[in-house]
Design goal:
The complex is a heterodimer of chains A (154) and B (299). Chain A has 6 helices and 3 strands; from the N terminus they run H-H-E-E-E-H-H-H-H. By secondary structure, chain A is mainly alpha-helical. In chain A, strands 1-2-3 form a 3-stranded antiparallel β-sheet. Chain A is globular, with a radius of gyration of 15 Å. Chain B has a 5-stranded parallel β-sheet. The chains are: A mainly alpha (154), B alpha/beta (299). Chain A binds chain B through residues 29-30, 32-33, 36, 57-62, 87-92, 94, 126-129, 131-132, 134-135, and chain B through 42-46, 48-49, 61-62, 98, 190-195.
Chain lengths: 154, 299
């Protein structure tokens, strides 16, 4: 059975969408908080190279994102994504946590094929407000653009 | 029954000291009958990471705004919202939040639209409470819903609409946005492009006083003397003036509205909540660019 929300998503991202959709509004916020707490720390190699991180001005808090493309055959090459977001901005951290869990490790082709409205499929508009969700779309757009640039360069 | 006011000497000089409480007063009164503590933040999840014991959350975006019309909820909506949070008409409501109480001020201003009698801000907000290493908890709050009467909003005394602002040009106005937004270099706050506007600049005649000039480093309000030096000294406003404050969507100007009304005792201050996201997108309203207030109408 195909679901219009998940049929065109890679497995882990589809699972995350299903997980959110299965919950009531208030519980969706709790799950977002769990993703916020689960956001992996930024690798140390970025400590000395903050210029490698791109700011995401669509977010209401200072959040930075970096996408790396590991060696491999063009479209099959693995994408890694990393985020820095402050503790006092748990909503933004939660968005980053979802993308870290759902996008990190995908192939270049999979990242490029991610639909632009994926952030709208989590059922968070009502709980979080569409305005705040734009920050998450901003992160995804930047990831896709960075991957496009780096895949060509690799 | 409303609680007594915080007698702390740091509040005594303000025009309405009963509108502020200190962190130590709040710590001493947590759990008092008649007191409801409300957290109101920009970040909708911050409350869940830990809040003052017993505090309930009110979100400006998903709860205080009407979901369809760009307006606030109505009397029935407000009664249902706050009644469900355990707030009755005679509760003493103390509001605190992140970002030097921006959203807390905004929530307080909305409570004032409904004429809630006793609503106060926690001076210094969430940041000061945390800095003083006071307790935050993730324990769920057990709220008993109460009846709150349906009171319709009374917008006129403290809320201004676009046409009123247009008619007000030439009288005192305060633009509380950043200098870059005021001059028109930017149409949005740094980091808030999604709330941008098609045109940059300010409303003719508006004085530039970025909201943060009213805040001390620890997030509390500056002393009355320091505030007077800015608003009545430097900007020449008088407490009897009819003043309109605006920003981008009305939240930072709620902070300034609070300062002028409750700390300096101005009689007639209105918050233009349409603010720059309305004015900067409206057709044929006059705009001035640059650092001077200006008076020339430029279409």
């Amino acid at each position: 059975m195909t679901d219009s929300r998940t049929h065109d998503l890679p497995g882990r991202l589809a699972d995350i969408v299903d997980e959110f959709q299965a919950l009531e509004k208030a519980q969706r916020l709790e799950l977002l908080l769990e993703f916020s707490q689960g956001l992996p720390a930024l690798p140390e190699r970025y400590d000395d190279h903050p210029e490698l991180l791109e700011a995401v001005p669509e977010c209401q808090s200072p959040v930075f994102v970096a996408a790396e493309v590991n060696r491999g055959d063009e479209a099959d090459a693995e994408v890694r994504v990393f985020f820095r977001a402050p503790r006092e901005a748990p909503t933004t951290r939660g968005f980053a946590g979802i993308l870290a869990a759902g996008v990190d490790g995908l192939s270049v082709a999979e990242v490029q094929a991610l639909p632009d409205d994926v952030c709208a499929r989590l059922g968070l508009e009502e709980a979080v407000s569409p305005l705040r969700l734009r920050g998450m779309t901003g992160m995804l757009r930047r990831i896709k653009r960075q991957v496009a640039e780096r895949a060509v360069a690799a | 029954m409303p609680l007594d006011r915080d007698p702390d000497p740091s509040l005594a000089d303000y025009a309405h000291p009963d509108r502020l409480v200190t962190t130590s007063w709040l710590a001493d009164h947590l759990g008092d009958p008649g007191l409801v503590v409300v957290e109101s933040d920009e970040d909708i999840l911050l409350y869940e990471t830990g809040h003052i014991r017993g505090a309930v959350k009110i979100d400006w975006h998903t709860e205080l705004n009407d979901p369809v019309t760009r307006d606030y909820i109505d009397g029935a909506g407000f009664a249902a919202l706050v009644g469900a949070k355990g707030i009755s008409r005679d509760s003493t409501v103390v509001i605190y939040g992140d970002k030097s109480n921006w959203w807390a001020s905004y929530a307080l201003w909305v409570f004032t639209l409904f004429g809630h009698p006793d609503v106060r801000l926690l001076n210094g907000g969430r940041a000061l409470w945390e800095a003083e290493e006071r307790e935050l908890t993730t324990d769920k709050v057990d709220v008993t819903a109460v009846d709150y009467p349906v009171v319709e909003r009374n917008d006129a005394p403290i809320r201004a609409f676009k046409d009123e602002v247009l008619a007000h040009i030439g009288q005192p106005m305060v633009d509380v946005r950043s200098p870059e937004e005021y001059t028109g270099q930017r149409t949005h706050m740094p980091a808030y492009p999604e709330e941008g506007a098609l045109r940059g600049g300010h409303i003719p005649g508006a004085a530039s006083v970025p909201w943060a000039r009213a805040a001390a480093e620890n997030g509390t309000f500056k002393s009355r003397a320091d505030l007077e030096a800015i608003y009545t000294g430097e900007k020449g406003l008088s407490p009897s003036d009819d003043v309109i404050a605006y920003c981008r969507i009305g939240e930072r100007s709620s902070h300034t509205w609070f300062v002028l009304t409750h700390l300096l005792g101005f009689d007639k201050v209105r918050n233009y909540d349409g603010s720059w996201t309305e004015w900067g997108n409206a057709v044929r309203v006059p705009i001035v660019k640059g650092s001077e207030p200006g008076t020339t109408v430029s279409v």
